[in-house]
Amino acid sequence: MSETSPKLRAELDGIPTYKPGRPAAADGPVAFKLSSNENPYPPLPGVMETAIAAAHTFNRYPDMACTALVNELADRFGVPVEHLATGTGSVGVAQSLVQATSGPGDEIVYAWRSFEAYPIISQISGAASVRVPLTAGEVHDLDAMADAVTERTRLIFVCNPNNPTGTVVRRAELERFLDRVPSDVLVVLDEAYREFNRDPEVPDGVEIYRDRPNVAVLRTFSKAYGLAGLRVGFAIAHEPVAAALRKTAVPFGVSQLAQDAAVASLRAEDELLGRVGSLVCERTRVHETLVKQGWTVPPTQANFVWLRLGERTVEFAAACEKAGVMVRPFPGEGVRITIGEDEANDLFLRTADAFRNGG
Ligand SMILES: *Cc1c(COP(=O)(O)O)cnc(C)c1O
């Protein structure tokens, strides 16, 4: 027997592992999870019944083409079914986009800090990450991102609103940026938090993509629609991009539970978007209270707020955990806090105030 281990691709060395938001401690007095940008509302009764009904057939493979969901989405967004591709969460679709476009020797451009899945899926592909720092206001620096494009660039992520800062790019600056990007470079507008946006100057990616064949829009059912645990997201893109996604998707990746629950959620959209409205009100309250307490908080259009705490990040996260609130620290940089149940937000705000006043 040989002593050597199976040969693995060198690209896998040093890939940062995705750190999920830590769950609430089971033994604490009160414990809220504000670390993963999840929807705090439980599943809607009608959606739950649909998922339970689908569970009765899980001895069968799901519909591989996600026919009912794709038809529903095509109607909802007014796009051809050929422009839709589904996946195991929009992270699954993002990974397919990277695989379909990029490999060793290529470059993928994105803002930093942004969504932590981007460096992981880029590195797996063998392409190099080109990270363009956010501006002092925590916003994508689109001019610098356009400047960073080279002959090797294959894909650019624009996360709007941006995770973890909640900041947005507006229509005029995005259009100007897209006009500068060569038409053979794919620009992915990651709109995971689109439904939480209330800034009328922030464009709907679906409108932007219509006359731009090099733009793909990513959306997810995980956040506003509350289906994070079911893993379903989708892309809207022209062919051949959408067709490439359907080719590279993991066969049968999206379960029938997820497909049926997603269709039911689209049909219950009024109710779900009402919940989003309540979360947006809570976001305003949390943001305003933090500002009153003296914190610097960038304006947010997502379901979270960002505190750039630098060296005090870990200490702050520990204080929150001790108080019964799990938040998401990025050591040395800052803390992202999801807008949750009113009670959780209250507890977080009291903890933040106490921290400012020295404990
Ligand atoms: C949460 C999130 C997603 C969506 O993840 P899913 O895989 O759909 O659960 C995508 N992009 C960003 C920026 C996110 O924060």
Bound molecules: pyridoxal-5'-phosphate
Using the coordinates shown, work out and report the CATH topology of the largest domain. Answer: Aspartate Aminotransferase, domain 2
CATH homologous superfamily designation of the largest domain: Type I PLP-dependent aspartate aminotransferase-like (Major domain)
- Widest sheet: strand order? 2-8-7-6-5-3-4
Mean pLDDT: 96
Distance between the termini: 60 Å
Low-pLDDT stretches are none
Overall 3D form? globular
Whole-number count of domains: 2
Cα-based radius of gyration, to the nearest Å: 21 Å
For the secondary structure, the number of strands is 12
Beta strand %? 15-25%
CATH second-level architecture of the largest domain: 3-Layer(aba) Sandwich
SSE pattern = EHHEHEHEHEHEHEEHHHEHEEEH
The first-level CATH class name of the largest domain? Alpha Beta
| Main sheet overview | 7 strands, mixed
| Helix content range | 25-40%
- Quickly count the helices: 12
The class by helix and strand makeup works out as: alpha/beta
Catalytic activity: an aromatic L-alpha-amino acid + 2-oxoglutarate = an aromatic oxo-acid + L-glutamate
Domain Aminotransferase class I/classII large: 32-346
Enzyme class: transferase
Function: Aminotransferase that catalyzes the conversion of aromatic amino acids and 2-oxoglutarate into corresponding aromatic oxo acids and L-glutamate.
